[in-house]
Design a protein that fits this description.
Elements: H1 16-47, H2 59-89, H3 95-129, H4 131-163
Length: 170
């Protein structure tokens, strides 16, 4: 009789390979959501120079605009990296490496999206309502991102740990 693989079970009745496959698919779904958001914001930014009022931007607004375009481009690259790495590592037995590296890159992409949201909103508010309104809007969005994107997962994690102590389902 063949020796059976001893796989530690954590939270679900799945092997390490099954868990890595599931984690990979979840990451890909998350990247699809990120990609859509970056495409929408990036597309918006790329149309601005072709608008008649674009010439009215002052130096700070033009710099912020170019910064936003660069953030959109870099974030797009970050979103593409896990797919590129997957193509290079496909069928080489490195799924754990692939998933863990894609997790890190996806977190950086989330940071890029957050920066792009803040920068784009700041630019729009600055142009339409003035510099102070732009800074206030940007600051408010930073606060909301910190509360919702950083704070909420931490709060949910601690709440889960205090509730049953078993949050390991990844």
């Amino acid at each position: 009789m063949a020796e059976q693989e001893q796989v530690p079970r954590i939270g679900r009745n799945e092997s390490t390979e099954e868990r890595m496959d599931r984690n990979w698919m979840e990451l890909i779904q998350e990247l699809r959501v990120l990609q859509t958001g970056v495409q929408i914001l990036g597309g918006f930014l790329l149309t601005l120079p072709f608008q008649s009022r674009f010439g009215e931007l002052d130096d700070w607004q033009r710099g912020l605009y170019l910064f936003n375009v660069m953030v959109a481009a870099v974030t797009t690259v970050l979103i593409v990296i896990p797919v590129s790495v997957h193509r290079r590592l496909f069928r080489r037995g490195l799924k754990t490496t692939l998933v863990s590296s894609a997790d890190v890159v996806t977190k950086w992409a989330l940071g890029g999206v957050a920066l792009l949201i803040v920068g784009s909103a700041t630019l729009v508010f600055d142009f339409t309502a003035g510099r102070i309104a732009g800074i206030v809007a940007g600051g408010f969005i930073v606060l909301m991102l910190l509360l919702l994107v950083v704070g909420m997962p931490l709060w949910l994690y601690h709440r889960g740990m205090n509730g049953n102590g078993n949050t390991k389902e990844e």
